[in-house]
Write a structure and sequence with these properties.
By secondary structure, the chain is mainly α. Helix content is 79%, strand content 0%. The chain is built from ten helices and no strands. The two termini are 28 Å apart.
Length: 273
């Protein structure tokens, strides 16, 4: 009798999954350890390159500065992401319902995406007014995050099986039934992929918008803190703010990846391990 095939042997799955999670952590530990040792060994001044331990100490000691700035950046990021997710998905559905509407509007969405944000931001500042900095940051971040959701969802809505389309038409399904029962489930993996991209792009857009506007006061986020720390040669604070930006991006990516896994794990090949 033939033994079990390698494909049916799942005994190594937990170990493989653990190794997949541990490998990046080991690399990070080695990199941070080497960084710490190099700075201490060669006595590098902290205003040139602070050690990881000093960055952690700065995160704790100056949390009163970093916390409110992080909250401003996070609020802009999440608001822009929500607007991009809702607007991109709805407009993709409209594009799918009418080829003429898609042909008329999609080129402008592309123009909005390929134009550098630093070139668009001054116009947004002029039209909205500098007294409404949070809205300026929101619009700039939305511009960056909107297109991936729109394009991926539109592709997904167009990817439904032709035979199933004809079957729905044969049984007289109305447009809402076709969208809810056929097109939306088909487009879900594509839409989730677009959301994973848009999540981190909204953070990038929020940070770039803060750099461009030079926000101060209650509207100043992490980018503004980075600018001021650069002017004061406060490198540990600069690295602490950059660390918060990176950790926020990582958290957003894993949160959206977890959401994608929860929604797709029982039926879609991309989430079945």
């Amino acid at each position: 009798m033939a033994g079990p095939s390698p494909e049916s042997d799942t005994s190594g799955w937990p170990l493989a999954r653990a190794a997949r999670w541990m490998a990046p952590l080991v690399v990070a530990a080695l990199a941070l350890g080497g960084w710490e040792w190099s700075v201490q060994h060669w006595e590098v001044p902290h205003f040139i390159l602070p050690a990881p331990s000093r960055i952690v100490a700065t995160l704790i000691e100056r949390r009163d500065e970093l916390g409110p700035a992080w909250a401003v950046t996070l609020r802009t990021t999440l608001s822009a992401f929500a607007a991009a997710a809702i607007g991109g998905a709805l407009l993709a559905a409209v594009f799918t319902s009418s080829r003429w509407i898609e042909a008329s509007l999609f080129p402008y969405a592309i123009v909005l995406q390929v134009t550098p944000l630093v070139a668009v931001a001054p116009l947004v500042m002029l039209w909205i007014g500098m007294e409404r900095l949070p809205l300026i940051h929101l619009v700039c971040a939305w511009i960056v995050a909107f297109f991936p959701v729109l394009s991926n969802t539109a592709v997904g809505l167009r990817s439904a099986d032709r035979g199933l389309r004809e079957l729905f038409q044969l049984y007289g399904a109305n447009p809402w039934q076709r969208l809810r029962l056929l097109l939306a489930p088909t487009a879900l993996p594509y839409c989730l992929a677009g959301l994973r991209i848009a999540g981190n792009l909204s953070l990038v857009g929020a940070v770039v918008a803060e750099f461009v506007t030079g926000a101060v006061g209650d509207e100043s986020g992490l980018a503004s803190l980075i600018l001021t720390s650069q002017l004061r040669t406060d490198t540990p604070l600069m690295f602490a703010a950059l660390t918060l930006v990176s950790l926020t991006g990582i958290a957003i990516f894993f949160a959206l990846s977890g959401l994608s896994y929860l929604l797709l794990r029982r039926w879609h090949e991309s989430a079945i391990q």
